Amino acid sequence: MTKPQDKLRGWAAARKAILSGLRFTSLRLRLVVVFGLVALTAAVSASGIAYWLNREAVLTRTQDAVLRDFQQEMQNRASALPVHPTQDELQHTAGQMGTSSQRFSVLLVAEDANGKTVTGNSDLDTFTLEDVPESLRTAVNKKQSVSGGNKHAYHLYWQRVTEGGKPYLVGGAKVIGGGPTGYMLKSLEPEAKDLNSLAWSLGIATGLALIGSALLAQAAATTVLKPVHRLGIAARRLGEGKLDTRLRVSGTDELADLSRTFNRTAESLEKRVADMSARDEASRRFVADMSHELRTPLTAITAVTEVLEEELDAETGSVDPMIEPAVRLVVSETRRLNDLVENLMEVTRFDAGTARLVLDHVDIADQITACIDARAWLDAVDLDAERGNICRLDPRRLDVILANLIGNALKHGGSPVRVSVRTEAEDLVIEVRDHGPGIPEDVLPHVFDRFYKASASRPRSEGSGLGLSIALENAHIHGGEITAANSLKGGAVFTLRLPRDPSPLIAEDEGQNGHGTEGNA
C-alpha cells in the first residue's frame, strides 16, 4: 500500500520535473521559443507586407475608378449646365450623376442669376458642404495660373476621411470655363471589410505558421535532445559507479561523435578504475597479510618483553644495569609495534568495508569514566557529563574514539583536558578541549590524515600516526563526524558528534549494500 508521504514525494518529483522542463534554461524551451520567434517574425513581416500591398492596390483601384467616373460625369453633365443654374437644375443633374456605375453621392454648388448660392444633392441633403474637408474645398476652388506645364486653372482633388468609424473617399472638381463646383462622396466600407477579411486570413495564417514552427521546433528539439538526454542519464550512471555504462551509437553527426567519445572515455575510465582497484586491493591484502604475519612473532616477543619488564620492576638485580636502558627501549618499542600492527589491522577492515557495529545501550558518563580510568587519566581529565544519558552505540568503538581524542589532547596539549557532553536534538556531542598552544592553521586540514606528521623534521613519534584517522572512521561508521578547531580561549577542541541511535541509518545503509549488522540484547 502506498504511503501518503510517498505520494507527496511523487507529486513533488513530478512537479519538479515539469518545472525544470519549463525553465528558460531548458534547451528544449529555448529551441521552441527561438523557432517561434523566427516564424512569428517572418509571418508577421510577410503578412504585413502582403496586407499593405493589397490594401494600397484595393484602395487605389477603387479610388481611381470612382474619380475617373466622377470626372467623366462632371464633363458630360455638370458642364452642360448654364453658368448660373437654378436649384432644380442642380438637383436634377446631381441625381443623374449619382446614378453612375460607381454609385457615389454628388453635391453641386453654384450661383444663380441673382448671385445666390444654390446647391443640388443626389441624396436628399445627406451630403452637404460640412461633410467636405475645408482643405479640399480650398484646393478645389483655388484658381491656378495656366502655363505650359499646367493647361487648366482648376483640377480634380480627393481626400480619404473617416466618419463614424467608416472610411469615405471625398473628391471635388470645378467646371472649367464657368459652371458649378461638384463634390463626390464614396463609401469605402466594402473595401474595408474586404481588407479586414484579408487581415483575419493573414492573422490566421500567422497563427498556423507559429503553431507549425512550434511543432517543428518540438520535433527538432526531440531529435537533438533525445541523444543528449541519454548522454545525461549515462553520465549520471557513470558517476554512480556503473562503469560498464555505454551508449548506443547510430549516425555520423556530431551527437554520434559525442556518444562515441563518451563510450571511449567510459571504457578507459573503467579500465583505469579496475587497475587502481586491483592495485588497491593488492595493497590492502599486503598490509593485512603483513599485519597478520607480524602478530605471531610479536606475540612471542611481547611475552619475552613482559618477563623482562617484570624483572626490571622487581629490582632483583637479575638485569645488568648496563643493559637496563636497552631493555626498557625494547619493551617500549615492542609495545609501540604491537599498537601499530593492531591499528593497521583495524585500518584494513575499514578499507575493506568489513568493519561492523555491535550496538548496545551505553551510559555516556560511565563509558567516558571507564575509558579514563582504564588508562589512569583520572587526575589529568575533567569530565562534565550527567549520568543517565543513555545512547545506543558500539561501546568498543566509542572507547577507541575517546581514547584517541583524549590521549591526543594529553600528549600534545597537556593537562588538564576537559571533556564535556551535551545533547542536541537527536545527536550526542562530546567536546575534548586541552590547554595547549593549539593546532597550527596549516596542520588543521590534515589532523585526520593517516601517518601525517605536523613536523617533517620529526617523522618518528610515540604514536602510529593512525589514531585520529581510526577515530574518524569509527565516528563515520556510526553515522557521525569529528571536527578539529582551535578554541578562542586557547588550546585545541575536538568535537565528536554522533546520532543517539544510529540503527535507522545503519539499516538503510545495509539495505543498499546487502550487509548484516550484529547487535547485543
From TrEMBL:
Its main location: membrane. This is histidine kinase. Its EC number is 2.7.13.3. Keywords: Kinase, Membrane, Phosphoprotein, Transferase, Transmembrane, Transmembrane helix, Two-component regulatory system. It is an enzyme of class 2 (transferase). The lineage of its organism: Bacteria, Bacillati, Actinomycetota, Actinomycetes, Kitasatosporales. The keyword Transferase applies. GO terms for cellular component: plasma membrane. PANTHER family: SENSOR HISTIDINE KINASE TRCS, SENSOR HISTIDINE KINASE YKOH. It is found in: Cell membrane. GO terms for molecular function: phosphorelay sensor kinase activity. CDD domains: HAMP, HATPase, HisKA. Residues 289-502 form the Histidine kinase domain. Coiled coil: none annotated. InterPro entries: HAMP_dom, HATPase_C_sf, HATPase_dom, His_kinase_dom, HisK_dim/P_dom, HisK_dim/P_sf, Sig_transdc_His_kin-like_C, TCS_sensor_his_kinase. Pfam families: HAMP (PF00672), HATPase_c (PF02518), HisKA (PF00512). It comes from the Bacteria. Residues 222-274 form the HAMP domain. The chain crosses the membrane at residues 31-53.
